[in-house]
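Re: that chain you flagged

S.,

Sorry for the slow reply, it's been a week of failed gels. I finally had a moment to sit down with the sequence you sent. For the record, here it is as I used it:
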Amino acid sequence: MPAGVQDAGLGQAALGAELEDAGIVPEIQSAIKHQQPLVKAADKIRSAVENGGLPAGYSGIELAGDRVVVWWKDKIPGRVQTAIRQAREIAEVEVRSAIHSQRELEKAADRLWAASGVENGGKVHAVKLSFDGSGLTASVKDASFARQALPDVGVPVELAVQEPMKTTASRCNDDIPWYGGLAIRNNSYGPIGGCGGDSGLDYHCTGGFPVRYNGARFMLTAGHCGDPGDRFADGEGQAIGTAEFKHTEHDLLLIRITGVVSVNEGSGWIWDGTPGVDDFLKPVIGWGWTYKGQSLCVSGTITGATCGHTVDGKFTKLCTDDYVCLTDLISAKRPNGSTQGGDSGGPVFQLTSDFGMARAMGTHTGHIADDGIFGRTEWTLFQDFGTATQDFPGLQPFLGFEGDPM
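Prediction finished late last night. Pasting the structure tokens below so you have them in one place:
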């Protein structure tokens, strides 16, 4: 652990201050604690869903109030029914009939994109699917765009007037073995200065989670932070390593970490707190899938840690103003202004019930906003950790704590 940094074993007074600094108001604290058994139950069901590939009838899982809601079209496979019975020993689980499966929505989204997506000359810059199987949402910039201009793709499609996604490409002076949430700079780009208020510490993005992959140690971050072959350093300029693997459409990048004695050197921790003011670390206890209604946190180089990002769906397609288009990003309604430029790649995580440990949930990509008649609404966009494990088979986060304290 870097010198002068607190560990996660905080007293109650310090913990209260930490939660306040992280933007965890009492209402969100209560929601995080309340969701712990719901997430456990949902994980058991999702594990059965993923075993053998995504079933045809699966629509999604939602954390709704005091229960887990499983949205499904048609018959539920036996292995999933068994998992639901087991999950009911942990929390209340309700199965609801979905109008469309996730597969059907994804195919409809592909048809919508082919007909109206900006990559194909259309006006739609994002397509989002619901986790309850109800339909799709198509995003356009022009408020005068007519709903009737959208093609019939066989599922309900809502129209949203939104600006395109803004990526947040950008703690400050970390050290080997490197921790998630640190400031990282791509030596191929001109640096941005002032990390943590120190003009001598430069950055471009935020490191996500230290991970094991292909028998080596890597830092997982956002794909738009660089390309394979780019060399990365920390805020002070100390070499971290070279980017080696990238999944462009999923906005994922793996930086091979150099300078460690072995792949097992160091442990899995992420930075929390306000950069340059009250930085401290939290241990990583594993990873999980995301569910509708789940309350998550993000830790970035500029903003620090913020919580209250609530998952509501997935964008099958999402494009920036300059037509850089990404796929399968998770959408979470967020506290307005809770992330800024430089937070890209930062860890998205779920807190344990005592708020002392973190579960890897994904890496931050950017945000999208809607200035509607009822005021401004903002969403955090991130790639979930489960997708990273599928894109890079065998990838796992380094752990700072063994066991299950959830």
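What I noticed first: The CA atoms of residues 185 and 203 lie 4 Å apart.

Talk soon,
D.
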